[in-house]
Amino acid sequence: MKYGFFDDLNREYVITTPLTPYPWINYLGSQDYFALISNTAGGYSFYKDARLRRITRYRYNNVPLDLGGGKYYYINDDGDVWSPSWAPVKKDLDFYECRHGMGYTKITGEYGKVKVGITYFVPLNTNAEIHKVVVENKSEKEKKIKLFSFVEWCLWNALDDMTNFQRNYSTGEVEVEGSVIYHKTEYKERRNHYAFFSVNAPVYGFDSDRESFMGTYNGFHNPDAVFKGVPTNSIADGWHPIASHCVEVNLKPGESKVLIFLLGYVENDPEEKWEAKNVINKKKAKKMIEAFSTEEAVDKAFDELAKYWDGLLSKFVIESHDEKLNRMVNIWNQYQCMVTFNMSRSASYFESGIGRGMGFRDSNQDILGFVHQIPDRARERIIDLASTQLEDGGAYHQYQPLTKKGNNDIGSNFNDDPLWLILSTVAYIKETGDYSILDVMTPFDNDESKSTPLADHLKRSFDHVLNNLGPHGLPLIGRADWNDCLNLNCFSSEPGESFQTTTNKDGRVAESVMIAGMFCHIGEEYARLMEKIGNKEEADRAYREVKKMREVIMEHAWDGSWFLRAYDDFGRKVGSHENEEGQIFIESQGFCIMGGCGLNDGKAIQALDAVEERLATKYGIVLLNPAYTRYYIEYGEISTYPAGYKENAGIFCHNNAWIMAAEAIVGRGDKAFDYYTRIAPAYVEERSEIHRLEPYVYSQMIAGKDARRFGEAKNSWLTGTASWNFVAITQYILGIKPDFDGLKIDPCIPKAWDGYTVIRQYRGDTYRIKVKNPNHVSCGVSKITVDNKEISGNILPLFGDGKLHEVEVILG
């Protein structure tokens, strides 16, 4: 069942009912100011950091769902009250539509011959969001309408807002000047910041105190002021500050009126603190308000945003026979990659923005999916990440985006983290050819006195694995590897208690086969990078260590039909046919094959056949099998989940891409693409009533075959699934792969395909690559011509002339 449709021409998903199975959201903003907005106008806004600079309030897990706050508008049409976004009033509308686009959302509602359309977006280079509201009278009589806006301010630190009521109920302060409501709570403190909400029209009245606006025992659906049609002109003094304008809109038959609302944030310089005693300095706010005071200015800003996305999405474009493939690659996958770059895993409808900052592992992987769009920002992010690294090569698992300081609460004992920094840096250099990043002096733990070139950080990342090997010569897992819930060194007396890292009395510690596979894959990339910069000694050393690790894997991590997942702290196998449950895991099958293990003796094929037999389902590949049905204290959190959910045999979509890549590596293009279509959002739209989450973006997890709700997704938007699936489809399946010396062309596609065309911008040039498959093979390049001249090999030459170059690729 579908709840809308894709409008590919406008790059929008159009939702045709407010009653989606779960709130379907979008993101506004691309630089410092961001907002989440659902298809019924729920959500919130923040500046840079969803925890430390929250602007508006949202209540997660609210009942009814998604009525925890939002950017709401109410219409009072002669006493008849409704909302164009359906929520929060929830009156049945004569027409409803939500269009989620690239950095904007348009919601349109019609009731009683009045049509209201709202366009929400964040202009480029602006710390504010615009709500363009168009009210149209479609009746044959004059309409006298009162339109009420509504946002609820947060008290800046979202965690403090949810916990420190004894203080916060006494700190709310506002100023009202004309049609602008200023929220100045905490302005007296060192932060010197405030927010504002304005409208470009005279107001009939306003409210800035929630109780005065709503009534003590009312909700968002029935605020007193709206239903009475009379704002109270309340001034918040402690308690709960809000911002609501009341605007009278008088319309003749067929007439429409445009109102521009601006919700913004200002951080003043110290010398700009006060205009007068206890009166905030409003210069920056007034400048923003003036800049977007007219419909023409707003439309120009919207056009600039559209051109910005035109530019981003022009870097990689596919033309194929499959419209769903085109839709995913050209629009939604790349869009999601940019959102995950901006947000990491911090702020969604499943992440509150409070508990997590930017993930070290997460953000490095996100770079893989967006580096081709904005390489300069990838470079900046790599340096930020490396700056949180520790001197021993380890890294803080998370850091706070506002302060860029490592999170001591989480710590640094995730032993896969350091390797991801190598992979993201290599991806950046392959995309740009910019080796100078390796010379950037970069601190450890943000201590400038401990700065070394980035190249040294990469060496320490590589050596962190070698300095932490276990009894089999495999890497120690630490608190966990990529699978946060596989806590093989961690014990607790009862499930749910905090885990403490320990070793047992024999001194053995748990080892990760996945990190071993990562080391082979990423370590070889490190060795190649060292070759490119002329450091032959380091390259040779790296190649030797990778070769040695492959040998260790084949000796100690092959279980007869697949790769083991790990050894636990007692030296026992994990992910083995010897285990009662959890006999095979997905991660080590993908990364060991990506790392070159088992390619020459048929074992890679054997492992992938085991994946198909034991792990593959119609909705994707589950993480392990059989699911754990009881708690294993020596395995940690992974066995605390019900069977079929999350890490306990859920379909963890992130790692499905590693199997797609592995299938492509062994030349099985049909299987690689088949797995791609099982989880790619555009291909699951028809079963939205089962999947439940947005049919235009990937989710982290889909309930596995052991779950009662098999096929139901959770945790959409902010997931490494986005970047890795983009890498899998564009680099491993379509085979357009950036390399140190140019674009490498190496497709592995379904045999039935006749071909496809990819337009790829790369290092200032544009390549139109026409792949033809006359012999209907999966892989193998027999001939490449560039500008009608045949080249040797499969790496396209670099021109540097900024022109379009025609490439023809013949498979065979």
Characterization of this structure:
The protein has 812 residues and is of the alpha+beta class. Among the domains are: 287 residues, Glycoside hydrolase, family 65, N-terminal domain (Beta-galactosidase, Chain A, domain 5); 181 residues, Glycosyltransferase, CATH 1.50.10; 76 residues, Maltose phosphorylase, domain 3 (Sandwich). It is 28% helix and 27% strand. The protein has 20 helices and 46 strands. It has a ten-stranded antiparallel sheet with strand order 1-2-9-10-11-12-19-16-15-14, covered by helices on one side. Strands 6, 7, 8, 13, 17 and 18 form a six-stranded antiparallel sheet that branches. Strand 44 and strand 45 form a beta hairpin. Helix 12 packs parallel to helix 14. The longest helix has 21 residues. The radius of gyration is 28 Å and the shape is globular. About 2% of the residues have low confidence.
Give me the secondary-structure topology.
Elements: E1 4-7, E2 12-15, E3 25-28, E4 33-38, E5 45-47, E6 54-56, E7 72-77, E8 80-82, E9 95-101, E10 104-111, E11 114-121, E12 128-137, E13 143-156, H1 158-163, H2 165-168, E14 174-177, E15 180-183, E16 193-199, E17 205-209, H3 210-214, H4 224-228, E18 241-251, E19 256-267, E20 274-276, E21 279-280, H5 283-291, H6 295-313, E22 316-319, H7 323-343, E23 358-359, H8 360-370, H9 375-387, E24 398-400, E25 405-406, H10 417-432, E26 441-444, E27 447-453, H11 454-466, E28 490-491, E29 500-501, E30 511-512, H12 513-532, H13 536-556, E31 566-567, E32 573-574, E33 584-585, H14 587-594, H15 603-614, E34 616-617, E35 620-621, E36 624-625, E37 651-652, H16 653-665, H17 669-679, H18 681-684, H19 688-691, E38 699-702, E39 713-716, H20 721-733, E40 736-739, E41 742-745, E42 755-762, E43 765-772, E44 781-786, E45 789-790, E46 804-811
Parallel strand pairs: 43-46
Antiparallel strand pairs: 1-2, 2-9, 3-4, 4-5, 6-13, 7-8, 7-13, 9-10, 10-11, 11-12, 12-19, 13-18, 14-15, 15-16, 16-19, 17-18, 20-21, 22-42, 23-24, 24-25, 26-27, 28-29, 30-31, 31-32, 33-36, 34-35, 37-38, 38-39, 40-41, 42-43, 44-45, 44-46
Keywords: Glycosyltransferase, Transferase
Pfam families: GH94_b-supersand, Glyco_hydro_94
GO molecular function, one term: carbohydrate binding
